[in-house]
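Changelog-adjacent note: as of this version, every example in the card shows the full chain rather than a window. The one below runs 361 residues end to end.
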Amino acid sequence: MAAPNPLKNPQFEFKSLLLLVLAASLLFALILWPFFGAICWAVFIAIVFWPMHQRFLEGSHGRKNMAALASLTVILLIVILPMAMVIASITSEASVLVEKMRSGQIQLGTYFERAIAVLPEWARSMLERFGMTDLGLLQRKLLAALSSSGQVLTSRVVGIGQVTLDFIVAFFVMLYMLFFLFRDGEQLSQSIARAIPLHPQHTRRLLTQFATVVRATVKGNIVVALVQGTLGGVAFWVLGLTGAMLWGAVMALLSLLPAVGAAMVWGPVALYFFFTGALVKGIGLTLWGALAIGLVDNVLRPILVGKDTRMPDYLVLVATLGGIVVFGLNGFVIGPVIAAIFLVSWEMLASARQQAHIPPT
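Full-length structure tokens:
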């Protein structure tokens, strides 16, 4: 009797196939890595605007190409184009602010001396111990740091053109991917569900949680950040502060961080008003920041995000900060999504173990 061929062993064939799939997946991920951010944002935007695309699909009587093109056009008109205009305005305002600082219209030294003069004695002594009260010394340290990093900055200026080209390419890759995600998203999600080696119930729950958290994070965080940034910019404009739109954009960006957010900008400004004797402005800004800007997070976020996807604030903060450190600006979405999948996967594992120990009736 002939000995069995070890190469025809089903276990060996399955392990070989698994090794091939893992190797091909790693190489494919390596190829896609340069466009990781573009692909992520294409997926995020497709998930957020999927209900709108479904209405376009019903209105076009099932014509997928027409519905995908209509969804992409609406996103360009109501999201991307206004965002580009706001970014251009913020850049222009930032350049004007820098020019005023250079020309002496805005004298940081005067503001610095006023803030130091109104501080309590213990605070001034603490700052003097660290050499933080001498504006000239601080300026010399800043110039020394800039001069030491001048070569690095000069070398990076050469790469500005390459960075701009990479951004343009990534932007068009995102739009291209977004069109096909709208057109073939349903079939693609079904293929992913079939390929995931989990129980169908666990697969459905995992994919549903992924889509829910992405939709809630993008919709909730971005809308809350825009509202808080707008309210902060309006407050700064009413108070006559220079660069109100710029500081509003900074507040919107910081609003992506839960628990701290926009208060990192308007809080020090309110303290400066109090220290310099502008009590009316200080009280007004504090009330506006605490009541209007601060309550936006407590009122809008539960409506946009929902209670079912609400994670603990400390977990959201850590996941958001960690995601930004690892993935850059994309991390404010990727971080909470990874945290949510982490919680769901461990919960499914605990549930499966519990069911395995229940004796049959």
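Structural remarks: Confidence is low (pLDDT under 50) at residues 145-161.
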